[in-house]
Amino acid sequence: MQPFLAHPxxxxxxxxxxxxxxxxxVADASNFVALGLHALQHRGQxxxxxxxxxxxxxxxxxxxxxxxxDNFTKTDVMATLPGPLAIGHVRxxxxxxxxxxxxxxxxxxxxxxxxxxxAIAHNGNITNAAxxxxxxxxxxxxxxxxxxxxxxxxxxxxxxQRNIPERxxxxxxxxxxxxxxxxxxxxxxxxxxxxxxVRPLVLGKLSDDGFVLASETCALDIIGAEFVREIDPGEMxxxxxxxxxxxxxxxxxxxxxxIFEHVxxxxxxxxxxxxxxxxxxxxxxxxxxxESPVEADLVCPVPDSxxxxxxxxxxxxxIPYGMGIIRNQYMGRTFIEPTDQIRNMGVRLxxxxxxxxxxxxxxxxxxxxxxxxxxxRKIKDMIIDAGAAEVHFRIASPPTAWPCFYGVDxxxxxxxxxxxxxxxxxxxWIGVDSLAFVSLDGxxxxxxxxxxxxxxxxxxxxxxxxxxxxxxxxxxxxxxFQMKPGxxxxxxxxxx
Length: 496
Ligand SMILES: O=P(O)(O)OC[C@H]1O[C@H](OP(=O)(O)OP(=O)(O)O)[C@H](O)[C@@H]1O
Ligand SMILES: NC(=O)CC[C@H](N)C(=O)O
Description:
Elements: E1 19-24, H1 29-39, E2 47-54, E3 58-65, H2 68-71, H3 75-78, E4 85-91, E5 109-113, E6 116-126, H4 129-138, H5 150-158, H6 164-174, E7 177-184, E8 189-193, E9 202-205, E10 211-214, H7 218-221, E11 226-230, E12 236-240, E13 243-247, E14 257-258, H8 259-265, E15 271-272, E16 275-276, H9 277-291, E17 298-301, H10 307-317, E18 325-327, H11 340-344, H12 346-350, E19 351-353, H13 355-358, E20 362-367, H14 374-385, E21 390-395, H15 417-420, H16 423-430, E22 434-437, H17 440-446, E23 460-461, H18 463-466, H19 474-478
Parallel strand pairs: 14-23, 17-20, 20-21, 21-22
Antiparallel strand pairs: 1-4, 1-10, 2-3, 2-4, 5-6, 6-7, 7-8, 8-12, 9-10, 9-11, 12-13, 15-16, 18-19
Bound molecules: 1-O-pyrophosphono-5-O-phosphono-alpha-D-ribofuranose and glutamine.
């Protein structure tokens, strides 16, 4: 048997995307970026990078595998990133070489143009990246990485505009899919969101001249920045010398923010669209308890993301709440899983049962989602092992039946449990007494849409649940992906 091997790409979250942060107008901006990225680590744990600019030393960069705290706290690394302007990225790959992430795929990416350099950090996924890459290579571009995000730099290089923000606009008008981008030139910090605003991006203020851009508000809190506002879907801001200029490069569009950010990705202490993520998750639990009540003795969260929904479920149902599953907080980087025996231990390394609390009880387990079903099945085994009398699963999202092509690392349809089975078949496969998911309308109510989902014009991107993709996933269609019959009409026309 091989020994456990430390492996930099294994992460303790199963589904991630990326986090981005930028700072301008502050001494040693890279220190602010490192702190901001640390607060965004839950969005990506494979690798991180920072680019900084200093008037004497020009652009400098550092790209590393692993956690921010292990790399960007070291004085020898941070000393190489001086200057009042810096951006950074924490990555979980959605494109490019996935089996063995290469350092060349780690962002930010950098390009040198006739008017100066530019670094970009991208959260999201470009749905026509393969087509763009083919076209760009045919026209002479030399790609350095296998990442979708690199297309943006090459498209900028081909633009005839005279300044970098205009080149970015040209480039991003050719790009389809989801992109929140933070970029920097020698003197400017730039933030852009795609026309649907699928991924988040917020603006914060540190001082008269000091501004930051971040994926989530929790990254403002860590550095004491004041929240100014969210960048709007389809908006570009250019920040320089204490001024924030705004423009709308893509014309009018209706936002379709990712509803799964509320369910799972974002940190519960972040505020999205004026709503606390924690409160939204608690409210999902309330909806779930109303929609799918069950007699039981104990409500237990599957930590961490299931916790606020379990609190809401317990409050609404009046059933006592208890920590029946305990998370090992030192899980951190996990281990490579070289044998089946070790692979099966996977969940136990992170989660263990509080036997004394569970024994002989009818237990309701609340988790935020079922994707492949691996977690639910293993947790059920542990709970039964610990002597529970009954096990009921309540899931704080609808069945995940469709892959995300907008920046989340969900597996292909054939690995999504809900794409293969009905809820009753899933219940049987997991092996629990009952299983229920919050309805799509219940989820919409929990995020503040009192009337639920607008079927003609959904307020959010919920493609992973509904199969209604707001942007046609061009590359995937070329590879043979079949959209839900009739769902072409759900593609957001305003975004085209
Ligand atoms: O059906 P599966 O493919 O097993 O995926 C679903 C699980 O993945 C997430 O857990 P994760 O450990 O990533 O996140 P958390 O610690 O934030 O709850 C989620 O909370 C579910 O428990
Ligand atoms: N999850 C993300 O936002 C990833 C960004 C980009 N598509 C990459 O693979 O690096």
